[in-house]
Amino acid sequence: MLLPYLNKGVIEAGCDEAGRGCLAGPVFAAAVILPENFVCEQLNDSKKLTEKKRYELRPLIEENAIAWGIGIVTEKEIDEINILQASFLAMHRAVESLLIRPQHLLIDGNRFKPFENIPHTTIVKGDGKMLSIAAASVLAKTYRDDYMMNIHNEFPMYNWDSNKGYPAKSHREAIKEFGPCKYHRMTFRLI
């Protein structure tokens, strides 16, 4: 069972990103503030859930969250500032979009760039430990997948409908054959 909060009585926002290891498309992040009494036994690290389960959980998270937000950093910005900084920026944008200001941020991973003056705690594999980070991982992943499905229609040869921009063999082979497109991260090793 994932933990509902780190500090009782503190407005905590769980933050996570999706798409960091991709060759194409933006990096998405989500920030989610859940009520302290939120219970959802199916909720877990989005990588441990099926695609179907992630999409079933998304409306449940959105309806029950006190606040949630999405942050996006484009492939152009990723190329300018690097993927680590882009991941931090996406999380900052997600937190900025929250309608309620959190008092503490729970960050999935081991590094974070402080956001304004909000204290934060980094938690390695936090998406498998804290409910709010797991919720953020589900939102970030599903919103990014929606985006990749959308741009797949523009460039079907890269198979983004199945690989979502990750470095799958079919994706690398398509880059070899057709070259990169405007959605590719040019600073990444594409082939």
Describe this structure in words.
The chain has 191 residues and is α/β, with parallel strands linked by helices. It has a domain at 12-144: 2-Layer Sandwich (Nucleotidyltransferase, domain 5). Helices cover 37% and strands 16% of the residues. The protein is built from six helices and five strands. A five-stranded mixed β-sheet has the order 3-2-1-4-5. The mean pLDDT is 97.
CATH homologous superfamily heading of the domain at 12-144: Ribonuclease H-like superfamily/Ribonuclease H
Shape: globular
Largest sheet: 5 strands, mixed
Q: Rg, please?
A: 17 Å
Task: Work out the strand percent.
Answer: 15-25%
* Uncertain ranges: none
Any descriptors?
alpha/beta; 191 residues; globular; five-stranded mixed beta sheet
List strands and helices in order, with pairings:
Blueprint (H helix, E strand, L loop, with lengths): L11 E7 L8 E7 L17 H14 L2 E7 L1 H7 L1 H14 L7 E5 L11 E4 L7 H22 L7 H4 L5 H10 L13
Parallel strand pairs: 1-4, 4-5
Antiparallel strand pairs: 1-2, 2-3
Q: Summarize this, please?
A:
The protein is of the alpha/beta class.
